């Protein structure tokens, strides 16, 4: 009974409702992507690293470690496996030979099945929604994006 009261309180507070829904959707999406990516031989941490390099190409091991919240030695092991699979390439810049920059390989970028998985996942979900519902979802997300982006610029 206590849990039901907490849920009622949650739904009466718009900011907590948005946070709850956002976290819940993100968790479901992340779990689905990890499960589906295992079919292609990738682990959850590998997917996180691939995603990190997609968003921040030419990162260093330290930067990826900070991004993922994992130790440098753990990230180094993940990188070694992904280099061996041809997913990541290591580059040593001419102007600073002491650092190693990491990026996704052109072959992986070209044949990236993970991007297709993400698109198919949402396409399959949206097949069950009406045009009106899809427009509401997009409109709501655009409004949230605008508000967050505007707030971020003021910080």
Please give a handful of descriptors for the protein shown.
155 residues; mainly alpha; two-stranded antiparallel ribbon; 8 helices; 2 strands; 72% helix; globular
Write structural notes for this entry.
The chain is mainly alpha-helical. It has helices at residues 2-12, 14-38, 44-55, 61-68, 72-84, 106-110, 113-126, 131-154; strands spanning 88-91, 101-104. The protein has a two-stranded antiparallel ribbon. Helix 2 (14-38) crosses helix 7 and helix 4 (61-68) packs across helix 5 (72-84). The mean pLDDT is 86.
What layout of secondary structure does this protein have?
Elements: H1 2-12, H2 14-38, H3 44-55, H4 61-68, H5 72-84, E1 88-91, E2 101-104, H6 106-110, H7 113-126, H8 131-154
Give a brief rundown of this model.
The chain has helices spanning 2-12, 14-38, 44-55, 61-68, 72-84, 106-110, 113-126, 131-154, and strands at residues 88-91, 101-104. The chain is mostly helical and 155 residues long. A two-stranded antiparallel ribbon has the order 1-2.
